[in-house]
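Sequence and structure are no longer studied apart. As an example, we show below a sequence and the tokens encoding its fold:
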Amino acid sequence: MRRSRTLSTVLQFWRSSLEAESEYQLNLVLECLAVSGNLAGSLFVLSLLFTGQSTLGGWGWNEALIVLGLYTLLDGFTSCLLQPNLSKIVNHVQQGTLDFVLLKPVDSQLWLSLRCFSPWGIPALLAGVVLVGLGLQRSGTGLQGEALVLGSVLLLSGAAILYSLWFSLAALSIWFVKVWNATEVLRYTLVAGRYPVSAYPPALRLVFVFVLPVAFMTTVPSQALLGQGSWPWAAGSLLMAVGSLLASRWFWRFALRHYTSASS
């Protein structure tokens, strides 16, 4: 009963968000142009990296397209949910409206994470699906049931890790005023996920595995989709996702204990 009520609440949130956003239909055209420009730029850079060589860190062109496609999917996820929701946590703290959120009969982290849904990230989601499908088809792998399931699960794990990082940084606004700059830095740092992690120098690979887990967001799910998934890496991705979600939950509760109400 509680889960169905939560789902119903989230759907009502998104319905009202879509109704509000539908008033600005020109944004869809602008977002399509922006996604097309970003993809063209990413493909151009990728082609430059392949100049004079047939592989990039052991990945062929078509395989690298899958990595880029998964990055584009996560970027669409960011535009649909993370940016429109988590960017407002800073404003809630600064303006004192977080008090009203905490008084609602809905879990505050759930409300802050899922209150809004922006349809302007959908073009990126569609573009990511097209890139992944094209890469799989041209690589000769195709869609294999087990690989598709494992790859999808690991992609969801990557999305969970990305959400946890964003939410934890946004929660720092309870102590620091201009923390939103840090989330923007995080977003642009994660651009490294457009390319296979093995293409980077060894020192950066360690950073992208243990510090900013970019590898678990794009490269590991791509290997799974290609039927090259490694169970140790898959287990590591799942553990990282669960650990990140639990850590973000704990950190939010810790932050609320240090939150000074605007009315106090």
